[in-house]
Amino acid sequence: MEPTNDPKSNLIIVSNRLPLSIKRVEGGFESSLSSGGLVTSLSGLTKSTRFQWFGWPGIELKDPADREEVTKSLEEHNAIPIFLDKTLSQEHYNGFSNRILWPILHYQSGVSFDDTPWQAYRRVNELFADAIADAAKSGTLIWVHDYHLMLLPELLRNRLQEQGKSCAIGFSLHTPFPAGDFWRNLPVRKHLIEGLLSCDLIGFHTDEYKQNFIDTCASLLGARTEIGNQIQYKNRLVCIDKFIVGIDPQKFTETLAKPEVQERIRKLKDRYKGVKVIVGVDRLDHIKGLTQKLKGFDAFLDDHPELENKVILIQVAVPSREDVKEYQELERELCTLAGKINGKHATPEGTPLLYMHRSVPFNELAALYSVADVCLLTSTRDGMNLVSFEYVACQQERHGVLVLSEFAGAASFMSEGSIPFHPANITEMSEAIFAAINLSPEERKKKYERLRDFINTNTSAKWGQTFTDKLSYRCIIGPGLLVS
Ligand code: ADQ
Q: Would you name any one GO CC term (predicted)?
């Protein structure tokens, strides 16, 4: 590969969805910023590095004139749309990625495999490979994100080779990677990990996920893995590492300083005077353990009648994947459960649970985090969980307590600063909530300072820079091809 002076000056980010969603409105199209963990994690890199972002714009457009108009408007944001037809994108996104792959990655059993969505998954990965190979030049760094695109590195590597281009390809998985024995439940278990092994660098959120992947490559593919943080497979040497993903804490500090947010905080404090506020913010997803959270909170209320009218759980459940049957069922279950809990514990003074099934604006989110005495996160599995970081960023001098499931990736870094518990153990959850509410000011400060230092050190900017630095290095020293 021809070394360039600064490989990062030529960076392509790829994710299934663009960070901007396109909607048809009267007289044209409108774009809006998407939210979610992936967008948050890449926000740091956006500040320091220019890159092109390839992905699906979230809308089916058949008319070439419409495509051109949308492409032009996205160009201003360095976003390049890859257009897909509706049935194909549905089968890829909901059919395979969200109904089959996502549950397997999060240790959910009972997943049934179906060949039609798998073929759609392949096809979409191929279409992405075509678009990106055409756009890349030799020396381009290509950073692919997440489970929707696990076949892409191999397909892309082949296309690039056909075109005589040599590029460094990196991949970051935002979910857990399960233990090998669980991963084997997926009939296409080998194809997906082989797809990734055409990368130069693969990043995971924790050491556990990284090790699971390494062990799986050894047992399923017979890859050589005893060579430190590298896997040798066929004629390639792939670097595997842990990169701690984070947030941009400054964005929260600036938001909290806004007069309108300060005013909102005052109002909320006034509204909940004398009441301990517990906050939860989660996408409405099985992995976030929302059913468990509501049951645990119910048990806590049963266990502590003396706290009647003195505690409230404000739970924001952000709508997610609403086309998928399992998510619709979960939503119905949560609504019923929330109604039952309030029916059982309400008094003329009010209800102990405020369940909001909608997205809230960023200012409101920051204000909520700021006034909450406790943040309760109950993930049954979760790649990292950035809400835990955001709560800490918004607490500042208040030293609120984080009650964090031991199954969130964040728990492997934050267990000493938080109160950990098992999300399926309702008694343990109830005790953890009680302990959080009653923690002494000294203990709260001690725990909080640990968390604050951690989130300020491991920012999204650092994550983006560390990964791209390492990928650039691979680009300069040459791709992961074995010399002999
Ligand atoms: P998610 O499952 O989306 O991310 P999480 O890490 O908690 O979960 O991130 C959610 C993000 O969405 C947060 O940054 C939050 O502020 C934002 N958000 C939530 N509600 C919002 C709202 N109403 N308006 C605006 N923004 C909102 C996936 C994995 C995680 C992993 C991340 C990053 O499932 O485990 O931590 O990617 O890798």
A: membrane
pTM of this structure: 0.95
Q: Where are the alpha helices (DSSP H) in 236-324?
A: 249-257, 259-271, 290-303
Task: Kindly report, residue by residue over 395-454, the tens digit of the pLDDT.
Answer: 988 999 999 999 999 999 999 999 999 999 999 999 999 999 999 999 999 999 999 999
Q: Are 358 and 348 in contact (CB under 8 A)?
A: no
Contacts of residue 283, defined as CB under 8 A and 6 or more positions apart, other chains included, come to 36, 317, 318, 320
pLDDT tens sequence across 139-177? 999 999 999 999 999 999 999 999 999 999 999 999 999
Q: How far apart are CA 95 and CA 117, in angstroms?
A: 5
| Mean pLDDT for the stretch of residues 75-80 | 92
Return the closest-CA partner of residue 272 out of 315, 316, 305, 313.
313
Centroid of ligand 1 to alpha carbon of 115 (angstroms): 30
pLDDT at 1: 38
Which pLDDT belongs to residue 2?
41
As a whole number of angstroms, the distance between CA 264 and CA 272 comes to: 12
Question: Which atom of ligand 1 sits closest to the CA of residue 387?
Answer: 7
ipTM for the complex shown: 0.96
Q: How far is CA 45 from CA 50, 173, 247, 405, 482, in A?
A: 8, 17, 11, 28, 31
Q: What is the DSSP string of 82-105?
A: ----HHHHHIIIIIIIIIIIHHHH
Q: Is the CB of 107 under 6 A from ligand 1?
A: no
Does the CB atom of residue 246 touch ligand 1 within 6 A? no
Rounded to 5 degrees, φ, ψ at 361 are: -65, 155
Ligand 1 test: best mutation among 13, 244, 369, 385, most atoms within 8 Å of CB? 385
Q: Which of 21, 40, 285 to mutate to test the pocket of ligand 1 (most atoms within 8 A of CB)?
A: 40
- What atom of ligand 1 comes closest to residue 320's alpha carbon? 3
Ligand 1 atom 37, closest CA: 37
| pLDDT of the residue at 479 | 53
